[in-house]
Write a structure and sequence with these properties.
CATH architecture: Alpha-Beta Complex
Largest sheet: 8 strands, mixed
Distance between the termini: 51 Å
Strand order of the largest sheet: 3-2-1-4-8-6-9-7
Radius of gyration: 20 Å
Strand content: 15-25%
CATH topology: Spore Coat Polysaccharide Biosynthesis Protein SpsA, Chain A
Number of domains: 1
Order of helices and strands: EHEHEHEEHEEEHHHHHEEH
CATH superfamily: Spore Coat Polysaccharide Biosynthesis Protein SpsA, Chain A
Helix content: 25-40%
Number of helices: 10
CATH class: Alpha Beta
Shape: globular
Number of strands: 10
């Protein structure tokens, strides 16, 4: 396969997670033919200077790729700015990009899937984004891949002509989105993604991914998902910037070498309903845990099973 997309990896202060990410990536079929760019953010406090330095020492020893380039930030950018700035720089130069963070373990076929998808859908302008991860949903009735409106950022890829539309304008987004837009954005209110926009406005969080979704959504773009994940997020152990400890998103890694990428260029309504059901079930599970905890306090037994 010629003209492979560069891989951009964002790291910070988690040495163990970074090692897992790199070691899995090194085992990928196309690793030795791929360029790897590693963006290392500077510490935001003296308390983590040592951890950041340990990560920087480790990444200097990395091999197994066509070329490794390390970009060390001199000042702390923060996760959102580090990613958007890094992606913008590399995708402008190479016209396409594959993006990872330091807590994403990949299947050995991750790079093959991402590069094949980038090549296959390059000229299909309705497709804006390729995801490497999928929700742990029932697979009956679904093909190898599907298209839908939502953007997953746990191992993803895009093209320069799509990324050029990325915009993080909080006030504009809030002003433009009507009630029906928000409902559709929230997958018919099965989850509250728009709340992230509000939390950014309130400066309670500083994120980028929801605004990439906004950018795609406003252009009525579609995102390609594999049915079986080529990525597993190991950051839900409480160590991530915006990730709490959570087992709800655990998935196995796909070992499928050959994927049929051809699908109808429209949102897959069955896949959408399955993922909406996942979100609703997750809410019910949380509600069940809360009720049971209260009831156990009083009786020592579970009221809901």
């Amino acid at each position: 396969m010629d003209n492979l997309a560069p891989i951009v990896l964002f790291v910070y202060n988690r040495l163990w997670h970074t090692r897992q990410t790199i070691e899995a990536l090194q085992k990928n079929e196309l690793a030795d033919k791929s360029e790897l760019f590693i963006y290392s953010d500077a510490p935001n406090s003296k308390a983590i200077e040592f951890d950041v330095e340990m990560v920087r020492k480790y990444i200097k020893s990395i091999d197994g790729f066509k070329k490794v380039t390390i970009i060390k930030r001199e000042n702390n950018f923060g996760l959102a700015k580090n990613i958007t700035d890094g992606v913008s720089d590399i995708v402008k130069r190479y016209k396409k990009v594959i993006v990872l963070e330091d807590d994403l373990v990949t299947s050995r076929y991750f790079l093959k899937f991402m590069n094949n998808a980038l090549e296959f859908y390059e000229n299909e302008k309705k497709v804006w984004h390729v995801s490497g991860w999928n929700y742990p949903v029932d697979k009956d009735g679904l093909d190898d891949v599907f298209l839908w409106r939502f953007m997953n950022c746990w191992g993803w890829a895009t093209w320069v002509d799509r990324w050029n539309y990325f915009e993080k304008d909080i006030e504009k987004t809030i002003k433009e989105f009507k009630k029906e837009d928000i409902k559709r954005f929230n997958l018919d209110n099965s989850e509250d993604f728009f709340k992230q926009v509000i939390l950014n406005k309130e400066k309670k969080i500083d994120t980028w991914a929801v605004f990439w979704y906004v950018s795609i959504f406003k252009k009525d773009g579609l995102c390609l998902n594999p049915l079986e994940s080529f990525v597993e997020n190991i950051g839900h152990d409480g160590s991530g910037v915006h990730c709490l400890k959570n087992e709800d998103y655990r998935v196995g890694l796909s070992q499928k070498d050959i994927i049929n990428l051809r699908v109808k260029i429209e949102e897959n309504s069955l896949a959408l309903e399955k993922i909406k059901f996942f979100f609703k079930s997750k809410k019910r599970t949380f509600f069940t845990r809360v009720i049971n905890k209260l009831f156990r306090t009083l009786t020592g037994k579970n009221i809901i099973k």
